[in-house]
Amino acid sequence: MTSLRVLLGLLLIAHLPGCVRAQQPPAPTRVQAAAAPAAAGPTFVWVEGEQATRTNAVRHPWYGQAVKRELLSGNDFLSHWSDRGPGEAEYRVTLPAAGQWALWLRANPVQASLKLQVDTGPWQPVNLSAQQTETVNLAADGKPDLRFVTWCQPATLDLAAGPHLLRFRFDSANNNHGSIDCFVLTTRPFTPQGTLRPDQMAAAMAQLAAANQGWFPFAPEPDPFGPESAIDLRFLNEKLAGENGFITVRDGHFVHGKTGQPVRFWAVNGPRSDITDGATLRRLARQLAKLGVNLVRLHGAVANQDGSVDPAKVKHLTEVVEAMRQEGIYSHLSIYFPLWLTPKAGTPWLQGYDGTKHPFAALTFNPDFQQVYQSWWRAILTTASPATGRTLAQEPAVMGCEIVNEDSYFFWTFAPQNIPDPQLRILEKLFGDWLRQRYGSLEAAYQSWGGQREARDDLGAGRMAFRALWNIFNEKRPRDQDTARFLAEHQRGFYQAQSQYLRQLGFQGVICASNWTTASAEVFGPLEKWTYTVGDFIDRHGYFGCFHKGDNAAWSIREGHTYRDRSALRFEAEEPGKPRQFEHTVMDPKYDGKPSMVSEHAFTRPNRYRSEAPLYLASYAALQDSDAVVHFAFDSTGWQVKPNFWMQPWTVLTPATAGQFPAAALIYRRGLIRPGDLMVDLKLALPELFQLRGTILPQGAGLDELRLKDVPTTAQGMQQVGLIDPLVHYVGRTAVSFTAAPAASTIRDLGTWVDRQKMTVSSSSGELRLDYGRGRLLLNAPAAQGVCGTLATAGAVQTTDLTVQSSLTLGQIVVVALDAQPLASSRRMLLQVMSEEKGTDFRTTPVGDDGVQRITNVGRDPWLVRELAGTVKFKRADAATLTVTRLDANGYPAGPAGSAASIALDPRTVYYLITGP
User: Fold this and answer.
1) β-strand 871-874 against 148-159: which pairing, if any?
2) What letter does residue 530 receive in the DSSP assignment?
3) pTM for the complete prediction?
């Protein structure tokens, strides 16, 4: 849900042991270098870190020896730990030919500093974040301290043939610690796979496939981003993000300021904030653009725990914006989340905290905190870029700013136990002032409430207390109604004031307030949304979870955790034994005619039904005319099962998720599925909302494990009655307007499109049909056709232009036009196929008989995909003249596949290009 969770594993650095007598490593032996056979030409030289030709490295018994040697290349490494000075190691290598030799290094990345000297050249810092991948904890006891190694690619060296000297220096601030397991010099693309050398990769992949019958490795080669790739969607983006002006709002949608052209955002959260290497950022930007992404949400703090701005983080934020801009990708800035702060005792702008609590709600009412917060925005938006000379306020590639992430007066975290007394007194005084203005005196307020008092009320100090949220939305007493109105008006006023401040700083893009859910979607939900309407668009978050439980399950997947596979296409409840849950985060009402965004969205791992997500989200977001879908989270530098040491539940760069982006992004961004009819036009009168009458169209909460823990047990699973059928969102569009007085609403009958007995729902456009009884979605639009979900029992599925048949129990088969023409006449089409994914060696064991599984091995690289199967036949009269070409995982031609008259799906091919004469 946030970058905080992505980084927690590496940030939990344990205390190092006390002084232990260091031991010298054994005398170094001659370097062992490996090169490919001469017939293949110069390809690589592999060097073991422990076999330095000369070194003064000091091996610490704990740091250098209490490690899992079986995870190291050659079962050993070179490490240094000394308070007496830096350690150095030199290596002599002989290159078989001159050329550009990429240096790949497996070394310690945690609080480490490393420098490199090549031959007699100058010492240069080694960027350990450059294309960082496969971070591994070496600690024998499993503790997340300093004992890690990772692969990185910090340099490409222009070297002559013959002997060369490479020297490394360990000079970290913490006892000059550092380590090198091995390094590789290569002239060919290299994707690290543990300790495998380049010449061992092919055999290892073949062995892996043989050991996993019915699955194939999904391990794309490094992408050269050549023009031959048929799945490269870079052309959908502007040449430079912002070249058509700042993003603004017109007629309820995002548009380019100069041209007025509408734009939808297919987006991701990321990249990770610890990826600081410029070359890596540029490569990631190019990869995202290829996948159809045109927006990144940069979600991370720029301030230290004391509230001071970190200039390095501000600089890095600007660098990311500029890297993305070059690939036509906009940036959306999110810089504050209460979970990023734990104020210490004596913090002058947050009195009462003791270093154990997060400042939930405090920013909304504490003026001292607001000044500190505004200093963060001032630094971000008014610091000139060294590269462009522009500030981010002047940068049209910055699409938007978000005021607060996931905090609200109306969520369960707004409770006395979470807010220290000095802070709560500030808000209670504001409530008292509001009541005096409303009633003339606090005594008059009591009379209006029938004398209802609370223990913390203090008339002498002018403070009035807050009842628990559960009591407010259930009992709805006069005092509760006034409380809700005060909280809503005050929260809305805060968002308005902060929005005005951003405008004063010169920001010209769009602004959103927040994105959080509430303790009651029916009663508090519309009040929360009303507070957001002072912004330019409405944001929200949503996760489709899989009953994932275990220690730190909020942000990691570990052995011993449990989970349950769960289908969204079937509306399966997350908890075993519960009835269907007709609630999903794709459901998207428009509020007050403003654009809508879901800035965090994920089907969390390890649910096998994750592969439902991309086409499901793209299709129904297009149907509801949503304006931005932001996937959480782009947390890796490659197709990694475990991007950091801890496996995260929401990784985007996987075959089942990003692997399906090409077709999904085309469907959504090009509107290949048309918006549905307006089925609900709901008018909500503010006086009635303040009376806590609620809404008949609540936007349900899709909580992940991290925030679900904040919900009281008695509140989970509460049923609401008298509501509009939530399947309306699968029929067409819905709109909500806030009015000063009651007004007539329009609610269309769903009988034409919803059949509860057959368990089907069709879109008003006729282009989507969901069979939620069987878990199957049919796409049948002119330029996008296919079927998703349970395929084996479907037989021959008919669309207007295709016949699709497959034995897959879970599969996604779709054809989209690359030239935006109907499939009946298109001359260039993409056929995309997916089944399900898992990490290599991922294993589980059943827990009981309700589908819950216990993880016994979280798995490793590479990804495995269940082998694909089926046939796709075009009904066009000229189908036999349409050429079909198999593509590799990067979209490059891999061989002929006959004609479109009948395409037999290859078990290991995800993409096909179909072209006409």
Assistant:
1) unpaired
2) H
3) 0.92
